[in-house]
Specification:
The protein has 296 residues and is an alpha/beta fold. The protein is 23% helix and 31% strand. The chain has helices spanning 62-78, 95-102, 116-128, 171-174, 211-219, 250-266, and strands spanning 14-24, 30-38, 50-55, 86-89, 108-111, 153-154, 163-170, 182-186, 199-206, 223-229, 232-237, 241-247, 270-276, 284-291.
Length: 296
């Protein structure tokens, strides 16, 4: 009788960045690198999985990346981490290559800017790792061209709520969100240096009959950011999607645009969306923490 083989339970989602770095190799070409880390929840694990591998510029392709992901899966298993169900990619320019690499590995690719742990790790490396490498290109680099934001589209009829309102929650309250009853949660780790008393701006969407369906629909969008623009309350999602949540009177839009932007900046880029059946409801059908991130 053969021994049973233990199957490791899936772990958190992974976030991946496959891109060039500000380092020139001896052949005069920029270094490429793949970074992979596990997505941290509201209460992050003491040691999230992190893995990196340098890639020769001449080997930048989906086949090399697939091998790198396989190596990361093996390294994760050796360290006791379960494999991810989903792989988030935050650079639109690399989406097709990452998609091809993920095919056949049993990983669902999610194009998304909700890669908060990855971006923080990349910032750490840009500050304390890359400058120490031979060939580091010090000094300001030419900024990438800023893409023109796509036109915001109206929400489908089935995804529209009955009403909405502005809302504010303290960082201390949000830190407890892991214990809330949420049908579709989108919780992420709060910045470690945030003051618990910091007010975080957000909105509440209400629908007595369709709250759960709306929450499910928004969950598939990968919500990333709220803004008031051109007299509209807009939700940015995925890599570049923009959806109109509400239209505002001119004066209200002018005041709200400045007030919300300032509140979001004071909160370190944090914001949130809550979906409930009514203002009196004790449960949340959906709740997402959002954070401003640089363009990919």
């Amino acid at each position: 009788m053969s021994a049973a083989v233990a199957v490791q339970a899936p772990g958190p989602d992974w976030e991946l960045d496959y891109y060039s770095r500000p380092i020139l190799e001896v052949d005069g070409k920029k270094r490429w690198e793949v970074l992979i880390c596990s997505t941290a929840g509201l209460q992050p694990a003491p040691a999230p999985f992190r893995w990196s591998m340098a890639c020769p510029a001449a080997s930048v392709n989906s086949q090399w990346l697939r091998g790198a992901i396989e190596a990361a899966l093996a390294a994760a298993a050796e360290q006791g981490y379960g494999p991810p169900r989903r792989l988030r990619c935050w650079r639109g320019s690399m989406r097709a290559m990452v998609q091809r690499a993920a095919e056949g590995l049993g990983l669902e690719l999610v194009p998304s800017r909700r890669c908060y742990g990855l971006v923080e790790w990349l910032r750490e490396r840009q500050a304390s790792v890359y400058p120490l490498e031979p060939g580091y290109m010090a000094g300001p680099l030419a900024p990438p061209p800023q893409p023109i934001p796509p036109v915001a589209l109206p929400l489908p009829e089935a995804a529209r709520g009955d009403s909405w309102s502005w809302a504010t929650l303290s960082a201390a309250t949000l830190a407890e969100a892991g214990g809330w009853e949420i049908a579709f949660p989108g919780l992420v780790a709060l910045p470690s240096d945030i003051d618990p008393a910091t007010p975080v701006p957000g909105i509440r969407l209400f629908s007595r009959r369709r709250a759960l369906a709306i929450a499910g629909w928004l969950s598939g969008l990968e919500p990333t950011r709220l803004e008031v623009s051109a007299g509209q309350l807009v939700l940015e999602a995925g890599l570049e999607d923009r959806w109109i949540l509400a239209r505002l009177p001119e004066e209200e839009a002018r005041l709200a645009q400045q007030a919300f932007a300032e509140a979001r900046e004071r909160a370190g880029g944090l914001q949130f969306i809550a979906i409930q059946a009514s203002e009196e409801a004790s449960t949340l059908e959906g709740f997402w923490l959002l954070r401003d991130l640089p363009e990919g």
